[in-house]
Amino acid sequence: MGFVTENPGVLTTIQDEGRYGYEQFGMSPAGPMDGTAFRTANLLVGNPEGESALEATVLGPTLRFDQDNVVAVTGADMAPILNGRPCPMYQAVAVKAGDRLALGAAKTGCRAYIAFAGGLDVPQVMGSRATALQNKVGGFQGRKLAKGDSLGFRAPNPALLLPRTAPVPAHAGREVVIRVILGPQDDAFTEEGVRTFLSQPYAVSKDFDRMGCRLEGPVIRHKTDGNIISDGMVTGAIQVPTSGQPIIMLAERQTVGGYTKIATVISADLPLVGQRKTGDVIRFQAVSVEQAHRAWRDANRELEELKVRLAQPQPAQPAGTSYRVTVNGKSYLVQVVKHT
Q1: CA pair distance 138, 55, nearest whole angstrom
Q2: How many CB atoms lie within 10 A of CB 281?
Q3: Tens digits of residue pLDDT in 12-27
Q4: Number of other CB atoms surrounding residue 257 within 10 Å
Q5: Is the separation of the CB atoms in 146 and 221 below 8 Å?
Q6: 196-218 burial by CB neighbour count: b if 16+ within 10 A, else e?
Q7: How far, in whole angstroms, is CA 334 from its chain's centroid?
Q8: Neighbour tally for 189: CB within 10 Å
Q9: Please, which residues bridge with residue 102 across strands?
Q10: pLDDT band at 46 (very low <50, low <70, confident <90, very high)
Q11: Are 130 and 14 in contact (CB under 8 A)?
């Protein structure tokens, strides 16, 4: 089989790389909010980068395995515990039938990813296994996981050679700079409005989800108002309605919208947005299309280098005991290894 969901957490869904080609029918692409952490988790367990995995938001799930396999946890630090002991993140870990993996509240970030060797055994809908909550399709019955849900592994690989590790990214902090390309309706705003957008901090409100992230801060002034004839929407588009408060459109965004869009978040920075939660602060920085392309190439190069490294034989590592320690308010995962 695979695992039983003993506790689903706040919002745990099945995601893959997304559902594309159906936006003309009002179907959002869905997919992971932090594509980098998602792809890394899959690479760690030997999967294609876009394989189905779990995305947990704010508070993670508790899973009881009933089949041997290899798993990896990446993204937000939800202090994962395997059978009562700290489970290292950004590392492939073998699990046995009867083992229990529990993720808690996010200490840093907002969304964690759990990948399973061989992916999850759920049907494809329109070519994807991603859960689109707004459309109620994909994933597990088109909804978030609930207590008692059982999911199977499609092609488990408990014999995967370990260790397999990836660098743990530095915590971005509670205030981040997000790079954007201005437009397509930046000419609908006053010069003062554009300056305000690019110079002032905006806090993530309580109203954020997989569809969009509403921000609170200084009013961004329009020349008239924030309404336009509805046109196409992309992930990362920043709508500014007449209220002057920006909204970043995310994985389950609508496919068209009738508010002015002052800018679009570059693809390389979408994972940063996906890890924001209430109270976090965002500042915007305008960049060129060429700079956006360069940032995207750099991000993909790091994943390609990880893929190449993981494909090579891994040197054996001595077994150790993991401990989570807190120093000056920051949490660290430390492994103590006994050498002979």
Answers
A1: 14
A2: 16
A3: 999 999 999 999 999 9
A4: 19
A5: no
A6: bbbeeebbbeeebebebbbbebe
A7: 24
A8: 23
A9: 62, 81
A10: very high
A11: yes
Q: Could you tell me which of 259, 277, 287 has the C-alpha nearest to residue 198? A: 287
Contact between 101 and 71 under an 8 Å Cβ cutoff? The reply is yes
Q: Facing residues of 259 across strands?
A: 227
Count Cβ atoms within 10 A of the Cβ of residue 238 and give its class: 0-12 exposed, 13-18 middle, 19 or more buried.
buried
Place of tokens 């500042």: 283
Those residues whose C-beta lies under 8 Å from the C-beta of residue 299, and which sit 6 or more positions away, are 36, 268
pLDDT tens, residue by residue, 198-221: 999 999 999 999 999 999 999 999
| Nearest-angstrom CA–CA distance, 110 and 172 | 12
From CA 178, how far away is CA 199, in angstroms rounded?
12
How far is it between the farthest Cα atoms of the chain? 74
Token pair 């920006």: residue? 246
> Which residues lie below 8 Å from residue 118, measured CB to CB, with a gap of 6+?
47, 69, 153, 154, 155, 156, 157
